[in-house]
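Teaching assistant's notes for section 4

Start the section by putting this record on the projector. Ask students to predict, before seeing the second block, whether Rubredoxin-NAD+ reductase will look compact or extended. Collect guesses on the board.
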Amino acid sequence: MPQSEYDLVIIGSGLAGYTLAREFRKLDTTARLLIISRDDGVFYSKPMLSNALAGNKTPDQLVMKPVEKMREELAADIWLETDITSIDSQAHQLVSSQGEVKYGQLVLGLGAAPRQLPLQGEAADQVISVNDLTAYRTFRQQLEGKQQITVIGPGLVGCEFANDLLRSGHQVQVVGPDSYPLSLLLPEAIGQRMQKVLAEKGFEWYLARTVDRIDRQDGGLKLTLSDATELQSDFVLSAAGLVPNIELAQAAGLKVNRGIEVDRRLATSAPDIYALGDCAEVDGLWLPYVMPIMNAARALAKTLASEPTDLVYPPMPVVVKTPDFPLVISPPPKAAGDGQWQIESDDSGLRALFVGTDERLLGFVLTEEKVKEKQSLTKQLPNVLDSAPSP
Ligand SMILES: Cc1cc2nc3c(=O)[nH]c(=O)nc-3n(C[C@H](O)[C@H](O)[C@H](O)COP(=O)(O)OP(=O)(O)OC[C@H]3O[C@@H](n4cnc5c(N)ncnc54)[C@H](O)[C@@H]3O)c2cc1C
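Reveal the predicted structure now:
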């Protein structure tokens, strides 16, 4: 088997892998850099997958840069459709489907995979999840000519897809065990308002229940829910959450929890192996969003270029792409401790402030016209993660 040798190897060509490579190249133009990816390596904006329909964007229009351009800009070798079989952290070596690679430093940007639901029924395999551009192409092809769409999962991504489908002329049903949308991120009063406003726009909600079976019926699909409700549907999209890709790290003996465990230097438990993005849990925090990746990539690039740097997460509000219910969320950090939501509402929307026992603002949620207050409130928030080293 051929053996190659690189100073830095990055596994993954998603936002995490490519942003890190770009930041690293700003600091080091000569290191031998290899990016290995399981997919086709095109650079695209994943957040756009859940609002491309109404914006009339085809999957091809979501491609920001082809892989040839990435190779040139990053002065990197990029191996595509390549799987990693194993990592030997002591020998600083990995085995891939294209051969063995010796690395100086290794970065895991492996992302996360859609949660698979335990569905019964002859058509259970018809369900599709969209977490990359390839799956999005399939989604768009299969959506052709379909009218009644069921989205499983009333979380952030599920609600975004449902709103996009609604705005592009489909009928949408949203099903999930939560008692209100975005229940992991929103206080109940806001979730209920979101549910009400989106119902007025056309969302059909089937909350506090799960999909148990999917069968074929009359050329379409019949969904049976846990409370025996039956729904007719033409197409089912599952957005039931993501599970970080930790298997490769686990098999290599690295410490994992929900994600691959890293400290504030993005270092795993093995020497010279780092992780960032949706696969990584930074000092106990798993934040599968764009802003944490951008901040992590900048800090890690410096560390890899011989300037050890602790990651600092500033406040990073998430703008939810539900245009029929504008929403911005800056969840209180888990370590924030005690506090409570103070919620005010008027005709222009809701403002929920999470205030700590010392009266400091720790998080917020803004809806509708109140989203305009995002910047001024963000300035008042503390960092999500400060540079103090992990205990
Ligand atoms: C529909 C949708 C909308 C979103 N909208 C927003 C938003 O509005 N705002 C926001 O902040 N966040 C949003 N997010 C989240 C954000 O897009 C992700 O956090 C981010 O794109 C994750 O990037 P990543 O590089 O960590 O993972 P990925 O993009 O999943 O990349 C992982 C890479 O690893 C490769 N890989 C995995 N395993 C292996 C292996 N064994 N060998 C080789 N290669 C491997 C894959 O091929 C891929 O290239 C959204 C997510 C989705 C799904």
